[in-house]
Write a structure and sequence with these properties.
With 397 residues, the chain is an alpha/beta fold. Helices cover 30% and strands 22% of the residues.
Length: 397
């Protein structure tokens, strides 16, 4: 029988609502389920396969891997993980190879596709725990520290504890902080090669891992997926689009190809040849992040995890690792006997999480500067030359 010491005693009868069925939300649900609780997860997607989940993720031993093992999912992760995904090929814009390295020499951070990780977590909780097609419209405080979660269909759910894992546009964030994500100055355009020819330039140099071709504030990045497809990212430093409408221009693939050829004019025809091989639509992805140091205002019965708390660009692969670690640390705090109230437990978790995220965000920002700068591949090459055992700051997710 599960014992509920300290603050966790209140959880026995509490209505717990988790916003979002991404890695952080599902991890929190799994950890609470293991302790005999039945949180309700509200997810706006109509089903687990309603949209693409993106590329691959690398899970750190002390981050995502630790979290999955605490959830009892370590062995299943090991069966899905791809250690060879840590191989990196570094190129100049002319297609010359500058470095080939196995990043696992520094830390074991195997790759797993986003869709695989999400399905692993979905399968770890009872299916009735997740409400699909439940889009959150607002989160409103109620008397007594409770909150009302209003849904787009006009219904609502009241909760004693709201764990907001609803991403960059979190409906709960305004109740916690006035700080909002800011554009980091870098935009990605990406597409997929669903069936890349094994002898193509991109396939040969991506191998089982990743390719970085780095130029003057531009990059072409490629990453192998479990299904053998390759996702290719075209990264540039660009001004923010305050209207948020520029992405609408990327629906015409012919126009996108022409735009990218102009943007990367002078680069190797071998590299630019991938534009003709991409056989999906292109996606427009401006990158946003939260400040390394945030100020959160007093609040009760609610907290933020993952991208809702600290969204960051995908340089260094810290996003999902920190999100999974958030879930572990929150549940530890909720069940720690020294915390006599839920709010005390939440405050302790948030203090530690915000401290931890300062370094992670600063490292991520440094990774972005290393990848996209006027010196091209030189800074990343120096990084490996000076610290051959250290993992690269690369496009991870």
């Amino acid at each position: 029988m599960t014992e509920f010491p300290g603050a966790a005693q209140a959880l026995k009868t509490a209505d717990i609502v988790i916003l979002g069925a991404g890695p952080a939300g599902l991890a929190a649900a799994r950890l609470l389920h293991l302790r005999g609780l039945a949180p309700r997860v509200l997810e706006r997607d109509a089903s687990p396969h309603a949209r693409s989940q993106g590329g691959s993720l690398d899970l750190a031993e002390r981050g995502g891997q630790r979290a999955l093992r605490e959830m009892g999912l370590g062995e299943r992760f090991d069966r899905l993980a791809r250690p060879l995904g840590q191989r990196l090929c570094l190129l100049d814009p002319d297609g010359a190879v500058r470095l080939e390295v196995d990043e696992s020499a520094g830390e074991y951070r195997p790759e797993i596709d986003r869709v695989q990780l999400r399905q692993l977590l979905i399968d770890s909780v009872p299916p009735e725990m997740i409400a699909w097609g439940a889009e959150v419209a607002a989160v409103t405080p109620l008397p007594g520290g409770r909150h009302r979660v209003s849904l787009a269909d006009g219904t609502h759910v009241d909760a004693d504890l709201v764990i907001a894992c609803d991403g960059i546009r979190s409906r709960a964030r305004p109740l916690v902080t006035g700080e909002q994500p800011g554009y980091c100055g870098i935009t990605f355009v990406h597409g997929d090669l669903r069936n890349p020819g094994p002898e193509s330039f991109i396939a040969r140099h991506t191998g089982e891992g990743i390719l970085h071709a780095l130029g003057d504030n531009k990059a072409i990045l490629a990453q192998r997926a479990a299904d053998r497809s390759i996702r290719v990212y075209f990264a540039i430093r660009a001004a923010e689009d305050p209207t948020r409408t520029q992405g609408e221009l990327f629906g015409n693939t012919a126009d996108v190809r022409a735009h990218l050829r102009r943007t990367f004019a002078g680069w190797s025809p071998d590299l630019l040849g991938v534009l003709d091989d991409i056989d999906t639509d292109f996606a427009y992805w401006p990158l946003y992040g939260m400040p390394a140091r945030q100020q959160w205002q007093p609040h009760t019965g609610l907290t933020l995890l993952g991208d809702a708390a600290h969204v960051m660009p995908p340089f260094g692969g810290e996003g999902v690792n920190m999100a999974l670690l958030d879930a572990v640390e929150l549940v530890h705090a909720l069940f720690a006997p020294e915390h006599t109230t839920l709010d005390q437990a939440i405050a302790a978790f948030e203090h530690g999480m915000l401290e931890r995220m300062t370094g992670a965000i600063l490292d991520t920002e440094a990774g972005g500067e290393m990848l996209l700068n006027p010196a091209g591949a030189a800074p990343l090459l120096r990084h490996f030359t000076a610290e051959p055992a250290a993992p690269a700051d690369s496009i991870r997710g």
